Amino acid sequence: MANFDGIVVGAGVAGSTTAALLARQGFRVLLVEKATFPREKICGEGLMPAGARILNELGILSELRAQGAQAFSGIHFHLPRNRCIELNFAEVSQTAQGWVVPRMVLDTRLARFAAQQPGVQLCEAFRVLSAQIGEGQVEVTGLYQGQLHTHRARLLIGADGIRSRFHNGFGIHRHKRRTRRFALSTSYDQLQGTGVVEVHCCEAGEAYVAPMGKRSARITLLLFGTAHRPR
Q1: Which among 138, 155, 176 is the end of a domain?
Q2: Domain-embedded: residue 128
């Protein structure tokens, strides 16, 4: 017999939001995450208007703003040969805004928000080992506090990203990249603010510059393959 209506594997942005929305519809949800919050995760830090709208509907965007989230009005893609593609949100909607939110802050707040919803049980440091489909239910077994735990539900949602450990058991195979990717992230002060997120692209990779207010920015460098070695 299932002891939950749904099990969501992965308490990142997608998983925590899904768990919270399911709970608001009356479902009992187990939300499991292999890491513990707060956690560091390299990210471009930019939240697009569609995502910001969902967070506003959930009622937590104002909290993120109070924690230092900064609005941005568009994205500028800087391409080789001095080309630039500008995406300005005002051309789509006068009220559309993106928000720069540190990923550590966003993940932690969403996971805590999901856990506060009646019907959601958040289990951090839970490493999923296997998932089986039975008749009318799914069964998830994982390692938690040094012991094996098995939970059953009517619905299983995998929100643990492209490196999912249990998707293969269901015949879902991700396309493996031929080259590895490497990322670095840091913050800089005394920068000239532009009010937009800038993405600088080249053959070796991409650099994201996300404004954080007060002349500071979060800069994330994504390198492809072995490009990081000579540079």
Answers
A1: 176
A2: yes
The sign one gets for the Cα dihedral 193, 97, 159, 125 is positive
Given a cut of 70, the residues of the chain with pLDDT beneath it are 1-2, 165-166, 168-179, 226-231
Give CA separation, 80 vs 70, 83, 204, 215, in Å: 28, 6, 11, 26
- Under a CB-based contact definition with an 8 Å cutoff, are residues 162 and 174 in contact? yes
Beta-strand ranges (E) seen in 65-115 are 70-72, 74-79, 83-88, 98-100
**Do the beta carbons of residue 216 and residue 188 sit within 8 Å?**
yes
Using an 8 Å Cβ cutoff, are 60 and 51 in contact? no
Whole domain around residue 19: which residue ranges? 1-45+102-176
**CATH code of the domain covering residue 227:** 3.30.9.10
> Do the beta carbons of residue 18 and residue 157 sit within 8 Å?
yes
pTM: 0.86
